[in-house]
Amino acid sequence: MQITLLPQLGSKIISLQNRLTGREWLTQAEGVLGNKGYGSPFADSDGSGWDEMFPTINACRYPEYPWMDAELPDHGEVWSLPWRAEMTEDKLECSVQGVKLPYLLRKTYAFPAEDCLRIDYAVTNLGSFPFSFLWAAHPLFCIEEGMEIHVPEGLTQIAVSYSEHGRLGKTGEVRPWPQPSADQPQIRLDRTEGREEATAEKFYFTGALPEGRASLYDPRKREGLTIAFPKEKVPYLSIWANYGGYQGQYHLALEPATGFLDDLAYAMERKSVAAVLPGETYTWHLEVSWMGQEQA
Asked: Entry's InterPro entries (predicted)?
């Protein structure tokens, strides 16, 4: 496994490559790589790679004292900020400080095995009051039609966050997984669709996760990847499936998250969000590993 990362560009991973097969797993920028700076819409960025979404996903206003009505930008703050980076012999640590909220967010990259990337996260509250946050990974994976999406057994229901043209319904509506509509049995959310479908949807699994794990597998080429995470610290899993419906882009993201649905204020109101006390640190991690035919 090999990654390429740009600390100055939101600590974005721009390449995640299987060195044995040569496969590139992250969507590459079609135009200029970059964004328009802090507070700009994510839609105006390059639409590629792996960004971090923190402390919200949708733009919103923080709903509690002492940051009441502080405006948090689209996809959060950190994807559009330059990060500091420090390389040791076998690890890379990247860090960034908040703008509207007093935090230090750190990521440490390491390879515990040749075919496994581990990212350790830590957010420290630098202020005098507790604050809540919503973090989610945002890896835009390269896909082909017919790839399989594997999630833990026992997950049978999703809540809609976004649905282009309303195919899945409105935000907050609940649907069965993996076939959301009895009237349209051909729609299967556990298989990637073709770009010509022109759909784009984001949904979260409801209820407690049996296991912190999700995979994307290509049955034709018999290779895939798995993202594993601690469900106690990262209790939610969402999927962003863009099959040509949003800006004509074609990709899929497996998105472990610390909050439920994409708006921090919404998650706080429902107490479905992570929080960190003054002076304390909240930690979690992700591991990305390859999967072969025997694991499919």
From this structure: DUF4432, Gal_mutarotase_sf_dom, GH-type_carb-bd
